[in-house]
Structure formats: C-alpha cells, structure tokens
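for the record, two folds in this file. i put them one after another cuz i was lazy. first one right below, seq on top, structure tokens after. the second one comes after a little note so u can tell where it starts
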Amino acid sequence: MPYPTRMPYPTAASIPPRPSPLHLTLQDGLDALARTHRVPGAQLAVDTGTEVVSVHTGTADAVRGTPFTAGTAVPLGSVTKTFTAATVMLLVDDEDLDLDESVADLLPEMRDLPKVTVRHLLSHTAGLPTGPDSDTAAGLTASRYLSAACTADDALFDPGADFSYSNAGYVAAGRLIETVTGMPWHEAVRVLLLEPLGITASFLGDTAPGRPVAAGHGLNTATGAVRPVRQNLAAVEAPAGGLLASALDLLALGRALICRSAVVPSATAAVMRRPEQGAEAGALADAWGLGTALHLQAGRWWCGHDGNAQGTSCHLRAEPRSGVVVAFTGNAGTATALWRDLSDLVTRLTGTRIPTAPARPDRGSPVDLPECLGTYRNGTSEYRIGPGADGLPALSIDGDLHLPLICYPDLSCDLVDPATGRREPGGRFHRDPADGSIDRVQISGRTARRVRTG
C-alpha cells in the first residue's frame, strides 16, 4: 500500500551545535527542576515553529549511573495510544478500515457489542471498562482478553454516549491493526508509522539493539532513596502502553499531528484533532479526539497525550496554528510535577502558554451531595463512595486509601490529598436522564456504573 514520502524532522543531529539563548536557559531550568523534583533523568524537546531545542539531564538508571542522552528511549505508557491510533488512521486513509464500521464485523470476540465502532475505540467512547490489571492480563492472548473484558454485562454506557478511558479499547485497536495488516501490532506500527517518522522502534521487552533505554524510578518518601522499578505491562496491553521513545521521537509525532510532516496526511491529522461527540474527558482534558487528548487554550485546540509507565512520566503537546510542539520524558513518577514546572518555564520563555491540564471554570461553592454515596463498578474494579471522617464523601477504589471528595453544583468533584490537603481535579457524577438519580461517576477519566446505593 502506498504511503507518503518521508519528510525531514528534527533529530539530535539536526540541531545547531552552538546553543541558542533559549537552549541554554532551558538546559539550566531542566537541570535545576530535575534536582528539585528528585527525577534522575529527563528530556525536553521544543519546536517553537522557528527553532528546535533539545535538552536532557541526569542518568537513565540511578543505580548504574548510565547517562541520559538525547536518544535514550523511555517507557511512554499511554502516549503509546496516540501511535496506535495514528496507525489505525493510516489504514482508514487507505480504505482498509472505516471509522464507523462495527468492530464486531472484524473481531468476533467483540460480538457482544455490535454497536461499537472503530471511532468509539479511538475516542474512548465505546463504553468499555478499563480492562484487567496487568498481572491478570499477563497470560492472556488478545482474543481471550477482549472476550473477557468486552461483554454486554460490563458495558458502562451506550457507545458514543459518554467517555471512559479504556486500555481494553486500545487492545482492541491493536487487534484490528493485526487483523487488517496480517502483521503483529509492533511490526505494523514500526513499518507503517515509526520508520517513516524516523523513529527507531523500541518496545517493552524488545528494545532496539544498541539503543540506550531508561529505567523507571520510584521515590521512597521515608528514606528519600530513588530506585529503579520493574515494568510490568502485560504483552497483550502493548498497543495501550508498550512503546519506548525519546522526547525528540515524540516531537516527530507531534509535528505529524499538526500537519508539519507528510507521514500522516493532513486531512487525517485534522480528523484526529477534532473533538469527538460524547468525549467529555473530565479531569484528563477539555475534549478528546481520535487518539489525542485535546486542551483548549486561548481559543486554540492543542493536541497530544500524557503517559505514565512504572516510574516514568511522558507528555506531548502540539498546536497547529503556531506550529509549536513540546515533548517531555522523565524517568520517575515525580516527573509529572517537573513537566508542569517546565511547561511554565517554556511559556515564560516563548510567550506561548503550554496547557498541562483542562481548564477549570468557576463551579461555585462546594455542596453536600449525599445521594452520591454508593458502590460503582468498572469491569472488575469497585469504586466505593462512603461518608468520610470529616463529613465529606470519601472515595476508595478496590479497598485502597479513602480520598475525600469535594462536590460542586455542576456534579464535578475534586479529590483531596489527605497528606497535604491539596485539591486535584477528580471527575464528575452523572444523572440518569430517565429518573434524575446519580447512576455513574467518572474519576480521572474512567467511568464506573452504579451497582448499589448508600
């Protein structure tokens, strides 16, 4: 099948050897902020539309002391989903798939859900549960995984009616790629997308020979020690989170998403950036496209994705009108806070605000919402909301620590960190249109269906 001619994109070799003032300031900022946030190593790549800057700092492995380079590949976590979606969209562009065809027509394991389309999978509007945890999924084939997770009994809502972030949906998208191309997912992504973008393909458990790889790291808050952690993503989940890449690699993908590369046709990229109906992503983004999280900033839609593997934090933002692309990788869980601070620094230096979280309009004063108490379910995960010690509702997922909830008149809610009291966007409740009762809750983008009250 024909694919667009590869176009040049920024690589470490193409960046001018003499650092610009922007490069020097970003390097100093990255060095200082990585120390502040206890992040062993990180990369930042910025394309301002007129200048490309790449900086990196620290070590790829805190125990071995391996240096973090511009080419070091980092476990991307969920940013992988954008690569998977772009590969699906190349097949759509070639008319091997149709966005609005039933997935069940191609995947018999989805026969319980005949109304779910390719579009629903890519936009997280299929109503699928998150999927089993990685330990449970470790021994499953894609067919067995989907047969277990994608049942009518576990459907959260009618396809296209709402948003629920789902790894299962991207396991299905990867299975579609394999069915249509006759290649394993990782091979299809490599041939159709990564190599045309100039990216050296690396996957969890199968890294490119000779390419340096970063370990993820955890912080022991009691001792202050930073130690490498093991990646435990199941092989079947690779289309949802199995890629490794550098910030410069993410920059190449960002350029393709905003039509600054011919690898993804401009009309296809525009479709990926368009907000999908029903895709109200709550605490994750202002809207959702096809494989892209969308953030509205000063009247402009930014696209990209965030991802966390075990002990890593990776982020991509791109805006088509200005041509600005920003990509970040960090090899510690605390790198998410580093990303936010770096985005503020890039904003100050370039005059272009980089969105890191959805807009938070004035929601009024907190309200009591006793009717939200109850048990909600997403697949095998149980969300329990009960009365907390301080009188606020408190959320526990699968029996974990109870987190206080602050509720607002529009049915949105914040989660409260018990240690610091800091409020973080949590999600929102939904009312049943038939009787007005609360029947669902969306927490951090994942929707759970109410199964018991009180």
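(here's the note) second protein begins now
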Amino acid sequence: MSQMPQQAAVPKCPSCEEPLESGDRFCGACGYDLSVVPARPTDSPTPAVDGAVPAPDGVDWPTVRDSDGHGRPAPVHAAAELPGTDSGGSPLPPPPPAAPPSAPVVPTPAVPAPAAGSPAAGVRFDRPGEPEEYPLQAPDPRLTAEPATTAEPAPGGAPAPAAAEKVCVACRAGRVDDDGYCENCGHAQPRERDHMEQESGPIAAVSDRGLRHHRNEDAFSVGCTALPDGAPASVAIVCDGVSSATRPDDASLAASRAAGASLLGALPRGTHPQQAMHDAILAASHAVNALADEPATAREQAPHQNAPACTLVGAVVTAGLLVVGWVGDSRVYWVPADRTAPPARLTEDDSWAAQMVAAGLMSEAEAYADERAHAITGWLGADAYELEPHTASFKPDRPGVVVVCTDGLWNYAESAEEMAEAMPLDAAVRPLHGARVLVGHALDGGGHDNVTVALLPFPAPPQGAGSA
C-alpha cells in the first residue's frame, strides 16, 4: 500500500526560514512541501583529502556536468581556453590575426597591456588592472611651474589654455570663459574684487569679500596729489553698495571712481579741500544716478528692481588739515600715534540707530542692539529722498592715522578705543600691513559683511590747532 511521504526533520523552512514544529508536512508560513527536503545525513562530514570529497553512503548526489563520471568536477578552464558560441549555439568567428611583429603595439590607456603568462590579448576584463598611480584631475603643480612649449589636452579632454589665457585656480588646467567659470571642471573663479589691495604713496587700502557674501560690493579709491603750493595731499574714498538695491557692486565702483577723480582734479587747482569733498560727493551721486538710466524694455522686464545705491565716506589729508565727508553709515576714525591720547570717531551715521540716539529716545547701546540699527537714512542713488553730503574739517595737533572704513570693519571695532586697539602700532609707517591687520580682525570676528579699510597717516603738523 501507499505510504505518506515522510517529512524531513529540519528546524526551519528551507524556503522562508520560518521555524517548524515537529510533525509538520508543510510550512505554516509559506506552504512549502517539506516532503521534498532530503533527510539530513547522520554521519559527520568527511574532510577532503587531495581535494576530493567522498559521497556519503545512501545519498545519490547528482553528477556534475562535464565531470569524469565519478562525482569529481572536470578541470577548471580559463575563459579564453573554451570555445565560445553565440545565442544560437553556433561557434563564434575566430579572433582577428595578430599584428605583424614589426608593427608597434600601442596599449589602450584604460586597460593595461597583459603581462606574461596572463590570458591572451583581446579578452575583456570586467575589472581592469589597477594602475600604479591614478590620474589626477589637475597636473602636478611642480610640473606646471615652467611654461609649456606645446599645448596639450587637459584632463577630461578639454584643450589646454594658451599661455595668455586665464587658467582655472581649481584644476590649474582648464580655460576660464568670459562668465568666470572653468571650461574643464566648471569651477567658479574668484572675482577680481573678492580681495583688493592698493598702495599709493603713504596711504593704503584693502577690501575683502568677507566670509558670508558671494561677492564684494565694496569699492575704494586712493591717490596722492599736490596742492598749488606744492604741499602733498592724500585722498581716500570708500563706498559700500546697498545690498537690497540693484547692482550694488556697480554703484560702489562708480561712486568711488567718480569721487576720487573729482578730488584729485580739484585739489591741484586750489579748491579748498572741504569744498572739493562736497563736490566729489555730488560727482559720485551723479555717477550712481546714471546707472539707473536703463531702457524702458529693461524696466518692463524687471519692474521689481530698484535703483542702484551705495554709501560713501572719504578723507583728505593735507599739511595740518584733515577733511572728511560722508553719506550713509561708513565711518572715519582718528587714532593718534601716541596711544596714550584718546582716539575719536569723526563721522555720524545716517542710520536709524543714530537718529534714535540723536533724538534721545534710546541709548547708543540700545539703539545698535536693535534689529533696525543698520537701516540707513542716507545714500547715493536715483531713489534717495534727498542728498545731504556731510563734510567736516579738523586740524589735529599731533601725528596719527586716519581710518576710513565700511561697517564690515567697524561692526567688530565699533568704538574709537576698540578701533585703536585693533590697529597695529606701526600703521603710520606700514599702512598696507595695518590695513591687512584690520581686515583680518573683521574676518576673525566672523566676516559677516564685505570689509574695506583705507589708512592715511597724518604727519606731525607744523603747529598745533583744534577743529576748523
């Protein structure tokens, strides 16, 4: 009579790995037929001797395909030693004949040439041999220190830039397009205004983008000239673009250039420095207003845009006379060479905070702690309510240094005492070094804004005097 198939004594289902109970014929989780599971051998595995594993008694193991008929697999062959067939079972065409010995063989860069004893050439490797050195994205700078005599392709297939073209600062191989991006690696190049330094005679200025802004919207202009009597005169103009306006970087650049040119042109003609400063601010205003003269189509395409705008602060140093002028919240500080004497701030901000303090509604600490503190009430631009240039003249009775800066610096050295403490003692004889130190002070403090500062040493006057 028929007998029921006996289930295998296995602890888990071979299909779903779920636990089984004694006497189960089917898996309770997946329904797998446990009767097809072969019984587990009772003896222990026999260790292999010379690579052969004898089959246990009573088990009919299937014979390995292409074996020798005794359960031992056939010898292992390399892929190149077996005849290949296509999808229809037909033999593959024979490989192309090898190149003549006289013909040079150029190895493919992606796959290294086969070494002696390796499979025949022409075999495709899923994982090519690892090169000893991986190709770099950029050439070794030690190799590119000397100018190349021939133009070779850059990594990635991009043509190498010519000697006169600008080279990418990231990969040092790609050509920089007109938009300021590398044609090889796509890296955006530093803008020319991201960091600027200039020395002109005894004065110097430094401007930096800072650590948070994507561009530098500050600009400066420094220069030296002579008065009609031959006495030297130094000029510094610093402008800060209004970020909420359109094209603030263009506004600051146009204003600084116009004001600087106006001063350097008026002082040699004998114009009083204070009048020359007033006229320079008006010239800067006209230059910024001109940026707003756009075609009607441009206004229609961007009706939400406002006019370009910036602030301005400047100083003129002549023999015994210091003149300052400003519109906005950039500042001028006076730091005497004798640090035992008190420093001073020479400008008043056109800002909400300054108005609150002047009206007696808030203390200076309370006003500048308010989130509206830096809202400016005066600026250069076509949409300014009313242009009110501020000018003042002083006759310091001792030598010192005049600091002309944007709020990107004085936010980290607001009081005159803090500014004097941040400035190195030798700033009068090393103005460029002093300007770099002050910019570094702002960057170390956080660099939340663009930072620009100009230093003008004030020589010892022939005689002491007070404010003019």
